[in-house]
Amino acid sequence: MDNLDDSGRGMKRKKTIVWDDPQINKRDAVSSLSGLYYLRSIRDGKISPPPAAKLIGYQIKEVDHGFAAFELQPGEHHYNPFATVHGGILSTLLDTTMTAAVITTLPQHITCSTVEIKVNFIKPVSAESKLVRCEAKIIHIGRKLATVEGRIKGINDELYAHGVSTCLIFKVN
Amino acid sequence: MDNLDDSGRGMKRKKTIVWDDPQINKRDAVSSLSGLYYLRSIRDGKISPPPAAKLIGYQIKEVDHGFAAFELQPGEHHYNPFATVHGGILSTLLDTTMTAAVITTLPQHITCSTVEIKVNFIKPVSAESKLVRCEAKIIHIGRKLATVEGRIKGINDELYAHGVSTCLIFKVN
Amino acid sequence: MDNLDDSGRGMKRKKTIVWDDPQINKRDAVSSLSGLYYLRSIRDGKISPPPAAKLIGYQIKEVDHGFAAFELQPGEHHYNPFATVHGGILSTLLDTTMTAAVITTLPQHITCSTVEIKVNFIKPVSAESKLVRCEAKIIHIGRKLATVEGRIKGINDELYAHGVSTCLIFKVN
Amino acid sequence: MDNLDDSGRGMKRKKTIVWDDPQINKRDAVSSLSGLYYLRSIRDGKISPPPAAKLIGYQIKEVDHGFAAFELQPGEHHYNPFATVHGGILSTLLDTTMTAAVITTLPQHITCSTVEIKVNFIKPVSAESKLVRCEAKIIHIGRKLATVEGRIKGINDELYAHGVSTCLIFKVN
What we know:
The structure is a homotetramer. Chain A is an alpha+beta fold. Chain A has 4 helices and 8 strands; from the N terminus they run E-E-H-H-H-E-E-H-E-E-E-E.
């Protein structure tokens, strides 16, 4: 992030996002041996994360069968008009982590998408909140549908937001 | 957006986000004569939108008492691993528009924040979807709480997502 | 409803619920020519409503393609500890009406069940509220899933509760 | 439950609900030394449960600070047209248990009501399901709002439904 003087209205801020061709992300996702393998390959830096991960800035930290954890360093570029992180950024982090928790259990050529998500916002996040961590685990998974829950917490275990979502499981080629 | 050759893994993409000091956004928000006046000032380019609006790329198009409409040009930088717009981006657009619809009715020094949001995803959005428009209107507003609903539609009126949220109304100085 | 003296703790109240063999309800539901035909047959008194309708006391008033309206006379037997109608009774009325709105569009041997429901409670209902009416209409219906919204209002159009739900569509024999 | 012959359409079923004057329930609720004391008094049979508890048939089994467990014996009178327990009955059980979990933490003259509830239905419940148990625990409680989650499980720990709700905390006299 750079600060640019714009004389009078304070310093302008700037951030550059770089991402890969999304068709490569898609090819990587579809060709992975399993959902867990795919997510671990991103975590280990073997394949690149999708553009939205670069735009928002979250990173996979842990994935296991039915479980995922992502982290985000909150920044000013995430702010709403009241100088705290926009709830939509937290929803995005929850959606990502909850979907990932479901994907960890799926074999190759099976994936899922979010049918609906519900998020409760408990406490504002700001750049001073340091790193926040979102953990999600599957509640129930059936043949067609899965439900999953997630929580965003800070370094001292304070709760910022929690969510639940319903995912549809389907074939992809 | 620029494309950079990274030899072999396709072209890298790049986008630079520029925003103002969020303390200026906050001062503008708090000092506005009313919520409606504040949102209209952003729409008319008199004051700058908050950083999240620059990061995600949505813009206010219309605001009236109990109603708001925002637009977003979907792009590749919004994509999840399956080369469609991440649901979290749509949740952010809905959250923004629904909160704005509530704010249109609030006097100076009264604002609201999202207690919880619930979003249903109906159809994937991609860069080929052209401009999408989110409209929100208040369902009910009381002294402490408001409920509001929103829908994201495309140019041909196809439905992409819909949501409902509960907002807490409070004083701010 | 009868009142019985129980000497000292006020009058005891009593209500007797009568219903039909649920296997008959099921046979009626499955053998109906269409969902709309089935619901109209209940509305017109040609076949009997399911036990839950008798227990809670709601009645079909109107059904059309993608739309349903049910009514409920709130009573003391619906009360929570604070002498207003239990939110669960309102959720049941919304769930019933929203599911019915989806069923109106389904042919014979296709039905739906509620995947998830979300209800906001706006204003308490009591026996003094007179008749309340719940109206629901489909938001979107696809091959596998439908979303639907509903509102409970009173005689003077005051809003008591509103909801949205996701239904799964499937074959039944 | 009695069965009555109605010649030809199978046996009619009958159930009689008996409850107390709801103003007594309200007086008991308001005058209790604390929320926990009030719920324990119902559990121990010292004061009577509200009418809705009698109508639906659920019973308090356990209450502790931030936690509640209720049980319900599913019966035919809870059935929807497909001869399984109506989702609204499960929503009522969840709403009751989740609200009770919040009430366990509140002092005299402070209570809460459900702002909104969200329920996912996982597996149908029928009379053959035997007793189902709903457990709820607080996720977060603040000065104005609390969030709470609950799950309905069977005897063998199978999951039937789960929910989350937001409650508003307020004074009552």
